[in-house]
Amino acid sequence: MVTISKYNEHYYEVCKKRKLEMSSLFVYLSGLAITLLLLMIAQKQNYNSEIVKYAKLENGVLMISKSFIFVIIAFLPLWYIIAFRDMSVGRDAYGTQFRIFKHVAYGKFYDFKNFGDEAGYFLLNKICTFFSKSYHLVLIVTGTLSWFMFYSYVVSTSNAPAYSILLFFLGFSYFHQFNIMRQFIACGIILFGFKYIAKRDFFKYFIAVIIASSFHKVAIVALLYYFLYDIKIDTKKGLLLAVLSKIGINLSRFLVAKILVGTRYYKIFYDSKAYQTGYMFLEIVVALFLYIIAMIIENNYDTRDDKYFNFNIWLLLLALIVTINSNSIPIPYRILWYINMNNAVFIPYMLNYISNDRYRYIVRITLTALFMCYFIFEWYSGVDAVQLYKTWQSGI
Q1: In the predicted model, is pLDDT for residue 274 greater than 70?
Q2: Quick one: three-class SS letters along the chain?
Q3: 166 near 36, Cβ under 8 Å?
Q4: What is the mean pLDDT of the chain?
Q5: Are the CB atoms for 105 and 133 separated by under 8 Å?
Q6: Rounded to an integer, what distance in angstroms lies between the CA atom of residue 218 and that of residue 212?
Q7: pTM as predicted
Q8: Which of 128, 167, 312, 388 is the most exposed place for a label (fewest CB within 10 A)?
Q9: Can you give the pLDDT at residue 306?
Q10: At what angle do helices 181-198 and 332-340 cross, to 10 degrees?
Q11: Is 148 within 8 Å of 154 (Cβ atoms)?
Q12: Are 188 and 368 in contact (CB under 8 A)?
């Protein structure tokens, strides 16, 4: 029997948690607002997306543009929030990542082979322990690396950096950095490798992917992107390909199940946690909506010679294929983050094709509203365990 006192105690705890959630949301939104405001000011100050033009030497004197100063300051609010958080903020931050740090800092010296193919992350932890045995240093370094790589990529490539940062935030990717730290460092490395895809320099892109996979081995899937760049895709045929992928993957799983049933491999293959995601309904809606917009733009505007546009259509198609097959393929979320990592930059690029200002504004508002719905759902679902924010509290 639940007593009144017990009920009141539970109610108090629920209210306290909700208050903490709202105060945490205020912290994140404040950081975002300052960043967006400063980036918009930078854009008004003759913003140039080529970062090398921000600062230059004239007669031996370093000349720094006003926009460059605003861009630097805009980096700081969201960086401070992620770098100086407590280890309890971010599920894997106090789980897998903390265990790895303890092995490196306090256990016996682990060989690279003990970390499988992710020796890069081991090395990063090992380097941190040379300076401090505090886990906080690892959080500072990983938070700084992941946020710096994405932020610098955006300000140097996006035609609307403030809007790109907003999409990155509303798509919850900023918060994934608190949790899956290794993967988002790998994503940042691959983003900088994208320029080698455009230059058709396979060797340098291959090196970038290998370095990324040393932090998170799933990054190896990004090697496929290099070969998609020169392959022209028709969006309507791509939609058919997505439907066929659904049929093909389900049929193959059915046939494999018939072959493996009764063997130990059946349990390994079908009872694995990696296959228990289920359908990613909200991700399907976002992926389908983005693909439809791209399809409309392709059919109404001349994108034939735009290889960057075509390349990103491939990524949107892959995202659609992964989401509609999320109940049938392993670790769909992990794969999807590698596919979607350029969306925040590509979306404003894609919308620039819409010549009618009114239509472009409507599509932009609709997309933003969709991303806001996604953010609200993720926030109140407790994704990534970032809802109870606090700065560093522990001496570990």
Answers
A1: no
A2: CCCHHHHHHHHHHHHHHHHHHHHHHHHHHHHHHHHHHHHHHHHHCCCCCCHHHCEEEECCEEEECHHHHHHHHHHHHHHHHHHCECCCCCHHHHCHHHHHHHHHHHCCCCCHHHHCCCHHHHHHHHHHHHHCCCHHHHHHHHHHHHHHHHHHHHHHHCCCHHHHHHHHHHCCHHHHHHHCHHHHHHHHHHHHHHHHHHCCCHHHHHHHHHHHHCCCHHHHHHHHHHHHCCCCCCHHHHHHHHHHHHHHHHHHHHHHHHHHCCCHHHHHHHCCHHHCCCCCHHHHHHHHHHHHHHHHHHHHCCCCCCHHHHHHHHHHHHHHHHHHCCCCCCCHHHHHHHHHCCHHHHHHHHHCCCCCHHHHHHHHHHHHHHHHHHHHHHHHCCHHHCCCCCECCCCC
A3: yes
A4: 85
A5: yes
A6: 9
A7: 0.87
A8: 388
A9: 92
A10: 40
A11: no
A12: no
> pLDDT tens digit string along 325-337?
888 887 888 899 9
Q: Is pLDDT above 50 for 17?
A: yes
Give whole-number Cα distances, 230 to 20, 37, 204, 225, 349, in Å: 50, 38, 17, 10, 19
Six-digit token string for 222: 């990004």
pLDDT per residue as tens digits for the range 224-236 = 999 999 999 888 8
Find the mean pLDDT for residues 8-17. 53
Question: pLDDT value at position 51?
Answer: 45
Higher pLDDT, 394 or 171: 171
Q: Which residue has the tokens 């700084």?
A: 144
pLDDT at 109 exceeding the cut of 70: no
363-368 mean pLDDT: 95
Asked if residue 338 lies in contact with residue 322, where contact means CB atoms within 8 angstroms, the answer is no
Taking the C-alpha atoms of residue 251 and residue 257, their distance in angstroms, rounded to an integer, is 10
* Nearest 10 degrees: Cα torsion 242, 332, 143, 313: -10
CA distance 69 to 233: 41
Structure tokens at 346: 């590509």
Amino acid at 153: Y
Q: Residue 142's pLDDT is what?
A: 94
Amino acid letter for position 344 = A
pLDDT (0 to 100) of residue 259: 77
